[in-house]
Amino acid sequence: MPHIRGIFFPLTTTRSIRNSVVARSTGMYDAITKGHIQNRQPNILRISGHSRSPMHRSVLFGTLVLFSFALPINAQEKSAPTVHTYYVAADEVEWNYTPLGVDKMMGMEFTGYAKVFTERGPHRIGTTYRKAIYREYTDETFTKLKPRPPEWEHLGMLGPVLRAEVGDTIRVIFKNNATHPFSMHPHGVFYAKDSEGSGYDDGYSGADKMGVPPGKTHIYTWQVPERAGPGPNDPSSVVWLYHSHADEPKDVESGLVGVILISRKGAAGPAGRPTDVDREFVTLFMIVDENTSWYLQHNIDTYTSDPKHVEKLENSPSDHLGNYNLFGSGFAFANFRATINGFQYANLPMMTMKKGERVRWYVVTLGEGLNLHTPFHRARANGNRGHGPRRSRHLDVPLPLRRTHASRHDGPLPSRTVAAVLATFHTLSCRQKNLRKLGGERGGVG
């Protein structure tokens, strides 16, 4: 930062610039607005001496004129918000819901009804689907992916975590590498019309109104107002969603969703994480409807062995044994994926924490009417929107989208490193009995 050097004169001064002590100043405007300067302030120019000559008064006038130019410049520097810049692209990938190839919760191969969701066949896609997901790059060339740190591998198909404090600005350079128009629409923050990322009949005719065309780039600028940050009963940070909104249901089911973490002003450390927590986890509980995805036909053609005879509306009201089942076992229902961060059957990368760490969980959901979830934490809960400490916490996460939950894992724990997936995080749902039959959210993360 360039340093502005100047001299402060009380308005009543008639003294000369003699025997002065000069020191560097990087905050002249702030110092002057305090109304006076104490000699103990090291970065303020100090003046002493006497004068009665016209020349000295001319020097004083010239110095005051200098201030009239210096003050606005320094004030502008002080008021400039912090801008967080991200390079994000919509990329098409082949996504495997069970990359480990086994049911990690049960420690066994897929059997029985689970095969409805995992077995490829003439009219079954299996566990791998083409999806579009948000991925972060290192710069505007979009040639090198930014590595995802090990502690964030559990994000799975979620886009990069976007961070800011209240009063900051988030700037996203977005490139659409996919084959359909996509966008980035944020929740919670302020934006101008060209940064909304959502198309509807509003009289706006911008180039990105119905999504950024394939191969094109768009810049989104989002301001973070105070109301986007934590409230008086919230922890020091809260979570919001962002997702594509060119064709919202199809875009979201195709995989384009991520989170924004907003911290209270001054609460975040250099890396953006709140200073009062040691570890953060983000979990998206979502029943993904692959029938609605942009890539359904591609997945049929690629992963079934008899694509011409696939009946997209097939939904037999029976399980794999022929018994009545409300949800059925046909092709359509086999494409409903009960997931956490895009994984099934506890295939989520291991989420670990250490005994005594302060852990913050951001729990979100998105999708259509079936997405009603009640995650359960078996740990010491320090707070959830104003509630006091408890040994465990149910978090009701209906379609109003988000919860932030803080906990301290203080034992009793089997070892210093805790397998958070299997020991501390269970999913209980209003559909639990049916989901267990479906092989969906089965008592563990993923």
Descriptive report:
The chain is an alpha+beta fold and 446 residues long. It folds into two domains: 18-79, no CATH class; 83-305 and 321-438, Cupredoxins -  blue copper proteins (Immunoglobulin-like), CATH 2.60.40.420. 15% of the residues lie in helices and 28% in strands. The protein has eight helices and 20 strands. It has helices at 28-32, 54-79, 115-118, 248-254, 296-303, 331-334, 420-423, 432-438, and strands at residues 18-21, 46-48, 83-96, 128-137, 162-165, 169-176, 185-186, 190-191, 217-223, 237-243, 257-263, 279-289, 336-340, 352-354, 358-365, 373-383, 390-394, 402-408, 417-419, 425-429. Strands 12, 13, 15, 16, 17, 18 and 20 form a seven-stranded mixed β-sheet that branches. A five-stranded mixed β-sheet has the order 4-3-6-9-8, with helices on one face. A four-stranded mixed β-sheet has the order 5-11-10-7. It starts with 17 loop residues before the first strand and ends in an 8-residue tail after the last helix. Mean pLDDT is 74; it is low at 1-77, 384-394, 396-400 and 409-446.
